[in-house]
């Protein structure tokens, strides 16, 4: 029987998971929105972050330090994609796919040639856990705010501004003396580092790392960005850049609340990708529908 109370009980868990995926979406935002680079590395680097984080914790590394190291390993994954594109001149999508494929085997090795590896909250001190969703929400929120502030500061520096210029107009940036290849590599490394950080947090929250946990991550990340953009009206140029970054996290939370509603309605989980496509399509159509409604209202007046 469907009860509203059961939906409310599941809500904190949806918010916590949405917040973590929103952190992942922050990383994707760097390449997708700022650099204008279609990077498919994230499906692999998200799993890499989860695998590295869990294996380090199991081997006695503090959870926070494990997350930081996962970030650095993710940066290496993004660096490889950047070098494939800038040095070997492989197309953006293909360079990301190549790195993603390679990371699958690497992630298996990291996990000790196992498909998954558990990390029990009873045995290790974890930053997040399914058993304490309120604490998990707080920790994820702190990470999200910290990353947003760091990115806000970074993209206001000379290097960050050069990356933004490269994403806005590559030819103009090159004409201004900006090393666009260096900017691409830097942005890709930063992006995948944040994605891997999100993977490490999710692994702690779920209590395990799986070699396929990042499968479809780019779809969820893009959904979070699109939903957040529509909800906060982030297409408007007068919005503060910090709010634009925050829209990715907000979108992640909203996305997982919708997923929670889908599960609450006991709809087939095999159709989850279909529901994701429908949810994203609805949010993409909202700006158009608002314009049509306004035009209709103006016409009647």
Describe the structure.
- Helix content is 75%, strand content 2%.
- Helix 1 (4-35) packs antiparallel against helix 8 (180-206) and helix 1 crosses helix 9.
- The protein is mainly α and 301 residues long.
- It has eleven helices and two strands, in the order H-H-H-H-E-H-H-H-H-E-H-H-H.
- It has a single domain, classed as ABC transporter involved in vitamin B12 uptake, BtuC (Orthogonal Bundle), CATH 1.10.3470.
- The relative contact order is 0.19.
- The model has no long low-confidence stretch (mean pLDDT 90).
- A two-stranded antiparallel sheet has the order 1-2.
Primary descriptors:
2 strands, two-stranded antiparallel sheet, 301 residues, ABC transporter involved in vitamin B12 uptake, BtuC, mainly alpha
Work out the radius of gyration.
Answer: 20 Å
Flag low-confidence runs. Answer: none
Helical region count? 11
Biggest β-sheet: count, sense, barrel?
2 strands, antiparallel
CATH topology: ABC transporter involved in vitamin B12 uptake, BtuC
Fold blueprint:
Elements: H1 4-35, H2 42-58, H3 63-86, H4 92-110, E1 116-118, H5 133-154, H6 158-168, H7 170-175, H8 180-206, E2 208-210, H9 217-231, H10 241-264, H11 272-300
Antiparallel strand pairs: 1-2
Helix pairs in contact: 1-5, 1-6, 1-8, 1-9, 1-10, 2-3, 2-4, 2-8, 3-4, 3-8, 5-10, 6-8, 9-10, 9-11, 10-11
């Amino acid at each position: 029987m469907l009860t509203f109370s059961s939906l409310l009980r599941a809500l904190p868990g949806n918010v916590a998971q949405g917040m973590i995926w929103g952190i992942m979406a922050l990383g994707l935002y760097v390449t997708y929105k700022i650099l204008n680079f279609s990077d498919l590395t994230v499906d692999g680097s998200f799993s890499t972050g989860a695998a590295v984080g869990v294996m380090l914790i199991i081997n006695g590394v503090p959870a926070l330090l494990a997350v930081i190291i996962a970030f650095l390993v993710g940066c290496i994954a993004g660096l490889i994609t950047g070098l494939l594109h800038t040095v070997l001149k492989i197309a953006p999508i293909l360079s990301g796919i190549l790195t993603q494929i390679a990371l699958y085997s690497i992630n298996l090795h990291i996990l000790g040639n196992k498909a998954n590896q558990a990390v029990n909250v009873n045995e290790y001190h974890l930053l997040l856990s399914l058993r304490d969703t309120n604490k998990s929400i707080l920790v994820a929120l702190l990470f999200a705010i910290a990353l947003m502030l760091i990115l806000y500061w970074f993209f206001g520096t000379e290097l960050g501004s050069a990356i933004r210029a490269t994403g806005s107009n590559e030819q103009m940036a090159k004409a201004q003396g900006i090393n666009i290849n260096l900017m691409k590599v830097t942005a890709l490394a930063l992006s995948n580092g944040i994605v891997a950080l999100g993977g490490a947090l999710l692994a702690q929250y779920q209590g395990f790392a799986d070699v396929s946990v990042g499968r479809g991550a780019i779809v969820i990340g893009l959904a979070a960005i699109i939903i957040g953009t529509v909800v906060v009206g982030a297409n408007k140029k007068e919005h503060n850049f910090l709010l634009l970054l925050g829209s990715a996290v907000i979108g992640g939370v909203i996305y997982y609340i919708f997923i929670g509603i889908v599960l609450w309605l006991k709809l087939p989980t095999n159709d989850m990708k279909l529901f994701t496509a429908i949810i994203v399509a609805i949010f993409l159509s909202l700006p158009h529908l608002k314009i049509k409604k306004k035009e209709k209202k103006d016409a009647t007046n």
